[in-house]
Design the sequence.
């Protein structure tokens, strides 16, 4: 494909992704399902070429930023607090799924090798971090369940792709179980070491940078550099990227400026949004080719239906059985586990959140050409993702029927008030220490008044956990800022000031409005 055609496709991808996601979001529909549907319909339009992507581009160009974007926003504290539950799901459940779905695929799909079946099982094993997070946030699940689901969906990507690499090695060469075990251990240890090393080094460099542009530039190349370095030493690039993202997200408040952190959040949310949804659209555009390959190499329509239903059934039952067994272990096991047990309803919620997504869609294209029934396995992976996305639409209904306790908004606001009170006292003590005779008394008094206002209003919650005083301040100040921005734009149109002064004034107004939104998010 020539450069102009490539750029044209990229522009069309972005425009379609933004348009479809925006429209279905207003209607409350699932954006991934809609994008796959739109891409699938377009793929059957005569004259539309099939969009192909090299597997290495997916492995080195798409997965690292996707995983890093999810990791850098994940709380290390929450993951550490629930590490045993998360590991049981992100490692134990993935291994269990690879075995059960692998053997089921081997028995159901004709002319397939066991290595290829395990590779396919590794492809469909990980859940989708973005879909799970979106569902959890919308439904108001208990904090513990949300933490477990987010931690599982992040770390199981790394486990599944390590298992996929081992299965691919068995497809393209002759290996023994000992070779696979050694390769797995080396990949994990090297990946973790590289991830921590890169995270520590980049954090050290960020502490010396005073330019948000330089900081952003460094962060944008970090996942790619981490992945390449880990793969160079035969480690798991995926695991290295996840570890580096977790470490850097935890260290960011200590080493990066406020401007750099704000830019970081916006940049990675944008990158994740575009890549995640573009992959769904890309898979939809490949639907006609995937179906043609499945028809050409598959065993027939009715046998394909049986195979799809069988794999989906094993996938669902495997997750339910593992999570329920884990719940039983926590409730009936040793005292240390019983102290950390969760309710059966929580276990059902976790079992039901088995949505597959972008990692499965991307990973299936990593299967080498030597894979038996490769096109047919790609079709089966497509069916698994679409079926799980459609099944995920029923998750809100399941959660409501479980009557799980929702997070306490009042408790969260109380904790925030207490924390802000501690921070306010520290700020006032520092103000007392830093004030000099040359400081304008009115400025000092203004700072004290602002700190006092924040402390007083945080104690005056409304019956719906709102804060009326803060809402009034936000409403009035935002109206003032809009008027100030309008006055500056009027002055620009009239040509009464030079452009540098206009730009500086607009930036100051934007900065205050951004700070106001961040300081009082509840009042939005």
Sequence:
């Amino acid at each position: 494909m020539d450069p102009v055609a490539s750029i044209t496709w990229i522009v069309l991808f972005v425009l379609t992704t933004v348009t479809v996601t925006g429209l279905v979001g207003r209607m409350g529909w699932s954006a991934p399902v809609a994008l796959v549907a739109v891409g699938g319909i377009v793929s059957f339009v005569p004259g539309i070429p099939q969009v192909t992507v090299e597997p290495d581009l997916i492995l080195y160009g798409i997965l690292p930023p996707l995983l890093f974007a999810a990791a850098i926003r994940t709380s290390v504290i929450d993951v550490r607090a629930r590490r045993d539950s998360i590991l049981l799901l992100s490692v134990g459940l993935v291994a269990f799924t690879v075995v059960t779905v692998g053997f089921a695929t081997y028995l159901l799909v004709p002319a397939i090798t066991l290595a290829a079946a395990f590779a396919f099982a590794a492809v469909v094993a990980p859940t989708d971090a973005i879909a799970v997070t979106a569902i959890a946030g919308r439904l108001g699940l208990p904090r513990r369940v949300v933490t477990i689901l987010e931690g599982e969906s992040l770390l199981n990507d790394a486990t599944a792709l390590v298992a996929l690499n081992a299965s691919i090695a068995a497809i393209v060469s002759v290996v023994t179980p000992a070779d696979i075990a050694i390769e797995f251990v080396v990949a994990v240890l090297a990946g973790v070491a590289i991830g921590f090393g890169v995270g520590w080094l980049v954090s050290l460099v960020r502490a010396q940078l005073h330019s948000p542009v330089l900081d952003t530039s460094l962060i944008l190349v970090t996942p790619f550099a981490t992945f390449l370095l880990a793969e160079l030493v035969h480690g798991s690039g995926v695991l290295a990227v996840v570890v580096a993202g977790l470490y850097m997200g935890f260290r960011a408040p200590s080493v990066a400026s406020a401007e750099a952190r704000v830019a970081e959040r916006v940049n990675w949310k944008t990158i994740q949004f575009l890549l995640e949804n573009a992959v769904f659209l890309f898979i939809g555009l490949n639907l006609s080719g995937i179906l043609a390959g499945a028809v050409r190499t598959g065993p027939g329509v009715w046998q394909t239906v049986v195979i799809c239903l069988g794999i989906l059934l094993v996938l669902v039952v495997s997750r339910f059985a593992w999570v329920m067994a884990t719940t039983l272990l926590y409730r009936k096991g040793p005292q240390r586990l019983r102290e950390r047990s969760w309710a059966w309803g929580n276990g059902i919620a976790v079992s039901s959140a088995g949505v597959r997504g972008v990692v499965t869609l991307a990973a299936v294209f990593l299967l080498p050409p030597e894979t038996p029934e490769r096109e047919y396995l790609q079709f089966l992976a497509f069916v698994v993702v679409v079926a799980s996305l459609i099944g995920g639409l029923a998750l809100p209904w399941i959660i409501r029927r479980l009557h799980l306790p929702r997070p306490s908004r009042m408790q969260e606001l109380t904790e925030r008030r207490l924390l802000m009170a501690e921070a306010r006292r520290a700020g006032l003590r520092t103000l007392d220490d830093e004030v000099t005779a040359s400081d304008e008394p009115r400025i000092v008094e203004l700072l004290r008044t602002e700190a006092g206002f924040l402390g007083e209003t945080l104690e005056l919650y409304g019956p719906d956990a709102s804060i009326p005083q803060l809402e009034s301040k936000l409403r009035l100040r935002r109206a003032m800022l809009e008027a100030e921005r309008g006055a500056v734009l009027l002055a620009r149109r009239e040509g009464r000031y030079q452009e540098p002064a206009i730009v500086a004034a607009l930036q100051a107004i934007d900065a205050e409005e951004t700070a106001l939104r961040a300081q009082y998010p509840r009042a939005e």
User: Anything to note?
Assistant: The chain is about 80% helix and 0% strand. The chain has a mean pLDDT of 81.
